[in-house]
Design goal:
The protein is mainly β. About 10% of the residues lie in helices and about 45% in strands. α1 crosses α2. The longest helix is centred in the middle third of the chain and has 16 residues, at about 240-255. One of its GO terms (biological process) is regulation of actin cytoskeleton organization.
């Protein structure tokens, strides 16, 4: 089983699929509740299924339909689950307002972090020493596992629920998406054993409820899923040829305009106009836009913290000057209802999506075509896990 692909949702079943043939090879019943999230251990031995208030760990290679371990302790829906790179511990987030770290060998609770609001997602930084979580109050928190404290509090938009977070495989970027379809990207820079988090860009990915943001393994793409029945793939590669052409053409058009059309009564150079355009691509020109990416570096309670506003730097991914978004590579449009979750292949060339329309689909991103459709769920499919890496990661 070099490729592990599984889906689950509201029909109380977990289904394993032969990725290439589309055949369902195994079904596990999950009678306790719907399944909210799935995660495969890096060594492909176990699958974690997060339900209403517990996480069940299943042996992937066994035919035993019963979990080998159950993690009890949350008091509301579990919304996120992720594994340490060697599978020694697992982190979960929950609508009970906590992020918990569990020892996967004993099942014991190791850490318990309070958010003061229902938590919608959690991921592990590649350094294995930090967690990033997002909550319904609009807060993104970074937790230091060694010191067991919150080191950063990010507030993309006040009181706008952060539904999904993703961190780059190389630790360079942090991404968050909120319920109104906005996406926020920060650069993570480690200096002198401390992490600086610098705003890069923000844009509206969907004009509807956003359910997932996910950075690709090669950190050249960003996938977003939403209630508008679509998943979109955005470009992050500074060498993306269509972006270079579009920006060059835009700048040439701007340079050819009458200075008065650009609001440039002083006759500034085209270079100055282009610099202004670069800022426009990141924030727009209103003070409210410039406040969208506020950062608070602190472990003290939110109420006691004075917020600081940071202006973004010019070293972010290429932005489309016509739409003030990342460059859109493809829109995946065949689902009939909400698209809840997605997973990239190891080579970042394919994406699996799941939807309330009961289907999972495998897409080839270079063409936007459906390669396989996985049919078998009787109610909405809301989570997917894929591991097709040739070596443990």
């Amino acid at each position: 089983m070099s490729v592990i692909l599984c889906t689950a949702g509201y029909d109380h079943t977990i289904r394993f699929w032969e990725a290439l043939s589309g055949i369902c090879s195994r079904t596990i019943q999950h009678p306790d509740s719907q399944v909210n999230r799935l995660c495969i251990t890096p060594d492909k031995r176990f699958l974690a299924a997060a339900g209403h208030n517990n996480v069940k760990l299943y042996d992937i290679k066994s035919t035993n339909p019963n979990p080998v371990m159950t993690f009890e302790g949350h008091t509301n829906n579990i919304t996120g689950v992720a594994f340490h790179c060697e599978g020694k511990w697992m982190v979960t987030s929950s609508e009970d307002g906590t992020v918990k770290v569990w020892d996967t060998r004993t099942g014991s609770l190791q850490r318990n972090y309070m958010h003061r609001a229902p938590v919608n997602d959690v991921v592990i930084h590649p350094n294995q020493g930090e967690l990033i979580s997002g909550d319904q109050a609009g807060m993104v928190r970074v937790w230091d596992l060694g010191e067991s404290v919150c080191t950063h509090q990010l507030i993309p938009a006040e009181d706008t629920s952060v539904l999904s977070v993703s961190v780059a495989s190389d630790g360079s970027l942090l991404c968050a998406g909120n319920k109104v379809g906005n996406v926020y990207i920060w650069r993570m820079v480690i200096t002198d054993d401390t992490t600086r988090i610098i705003p890069v860009c923000t844009f509206q990915a969907h004009r509807d409820y956003l359910t997932r943001v996910l950075l690709s393994p090669d950190v050249k793409h960003l996938a977003t899923c939403a209630a508008d029945h679509t998943a979109k793939v955005w470009n992050l590669d500074t060498d993306y040829a269509p972006a270079k052409v579009a920006i060059k053409e835009w700048n040439e058009r701007q340079a050819q305009k009458d200075p008065s059309e650009n609001g440039d009564s002083n006759g500034d150079s085209a270079e100055g106009n282009n610099q202004n355009n670069e800022l426009m691509r990141i924030f727009g020109d209103s003070s409210t836009d410039r406040d969208l990416l506020r950062i608070t570096d602190t472990s003290t309670p939110r109420e006691d913290t004075s917020q600081q506003t940071f202006m973004a730097g010019p070293d972010g991914p290429p932005m489309d000057p016509a739409s003030n978004t990342l460059f859109l590579e493809t829109t995946l449009v065949n689902h009939q209802r909400w698209v809840w979750d997605c997973a990239f292949s190891a080579d970042s060339a394919y994406l699996v999506t799941v939807s309330s329309d009961h289907y999972a689909r495998l897409w080839e991103l270079s063409t936007g075509n459906i390669i396989r459709q996985y049919s078998g769920h009787h109610r909405g499919a809301v989570c997917v896990a894929l591991n097709d890496y040739s070596e443990p990661r």
